[in-house]
Amino acid sequence: MVQNAKFTKKMRAMRSEVKEALVRGVERNAEKVCDEMRLMLAVQYPAVAAKVEIGWTWGDAPTGSFTIARASNGAETTALSVAIYARGKQGSGLSAAWFEFGTAERVTKSGARRGRITAGPFFYTVFRANRQRVQASLRATLRRAVKKINAS
Question: Highest taxon of the source (predicted)?
Answer without folding.
Answer: Bacteria
